[in-house]
Amino acid sequence: MGAESSNGTVGPRRMLALALPTLGVLIAEPLYLLFDMAVVGRLGALALAGLAVGGLLLAQASTQLTFLSYGTTARAARRHGAGDERGAVEEGVQATWLALGVGAAILVVAQCVAAPVTNAVAGGGDIAAAALDWVRIALFGVPPILVSMAGNGWLRGVQQTRRPLLYVVAGLAVSAVLCPVLVHGLLGAPRMELPGSAVANLVGQLVMAGLFLNALVRARISLRPRWSVMRAQLTLGRDLIVRSLAFQACSVSAAAVAARFGAATVAANQLVLQLWFFLALALDALAIAAQTLVGATLGAGDAAGARELARRVTLWSELFAVALAAIFAAGAGVIPHLFTADPDVLDRMRVAWWFFVALIPVAGLVFALDGVLLGAGDAAYLRNITMGSALLGYLPLTWLALVFGWGIAGIWWGMAGFMVLRAAAVAVRALSGRWARVGAEVPVGA
């Protein structure tokens, strides 16, 4: 067998062996982006604003296609668990063809609309001009970004999580060296200022994608495109894209409502949300490990083992989440002051803080079972419950906060409704056992 099929062989050590390198991959890019901002920030506020707008546009052009990593992991893990190593790697080949094709299409379309979209987001003027210069260059990084997503997906599926970490770190290290050199004209290089940041990003992304492509070539299997496999991947991807759009609708609504309560509410909400996103990265690392192991166990034909694995992963994630909640509860009087000294912002952060703390254990359950159900290929169910939780929980409560003047508390009541509804839905699905369908293929409409 290509993976452990017995539930007794998957313990905390095995889970951590998969989760820790995955966590490294998840946090590497956010850390580099902070470094990039520090380098560009020395050019002044205009360059930093241009980078912020440009980075937002690049993220929107690429991050909606996370199915290239999550969907590929689910499909490759099934093959790996069934002992079909060539089939597992072939999932990576076909996902890479999709990444190249979709990435090229996005590049062409995005270049055509870059100027009006940048103007609309930045409100025209000098910020839009600075952002456009950065975006024009950075958009060439979309195809290699998507290739790296696909590479992460199939390597996770075959339970090789250290190689993606090495590839990502190598690419970001190249960018980190080039960024100050090109932005500020060090070591005899031309001083490119803000466009230098985009060039450094692009070179690092090309290095990263090249390493993932080399891993496919060295696997010595056919690199011929197969539309039947790509079509199946797109079916799974469709559900994950719709799910991602539901998350985006919630984020945009929260930001829009917060803005109408003033700058202090916007700042407080953003600071607490950034902490929430940081915790999500830690919990996601466990969820991705669960996705890999559940997919492999189902591929090996062991439904009972997959259900036991789901139970144990959920328990570990919940214990971790409770510990994190205790830390942030104890730090309620200290942690917010690390980010701001503004009394109005701190006042609003205190309101959101206890929603944040209370929801961390809920997130431990939701993220763990998200990983389990993604590993089972149950993307259609996740799509439906995410949309339902957004429509019944997050969106109405958030917009009612504006109508009735509930302020930041109303926004976080929306988050609470969203998370509690999702927790109930994934728990019901997990307990039903209907997701645990065995076989090397991800069930359609699981």
Automatic annotation (TrEMBL):
Official protein name in the record: MATE family efflux transporter
**Cellular component, GO annotation:** plasma membrane
Source species, please? Nocardia panacis
Q: Which family does it belong to?
A: Belongs to the multi antimicrobial extrusion (MATE) (TC 2.A.66.1) family.
Q: Where are the transmembrane segments?
A: 15-33, 39-59, 137-155, 167-187, 199-219, 240-263, 275-298, 319-339, 351-373, 385-405, 411-431
One GO molecular function term of this record is: antiporter activity
Upper classification of the source organism reads: Bacteria, Bacillati, Actinomycetota, Actinomycetes, Mycobacteriales
InterPro entries attached here? DinF-like, MATE_fam
Membrane keyword on record? yes
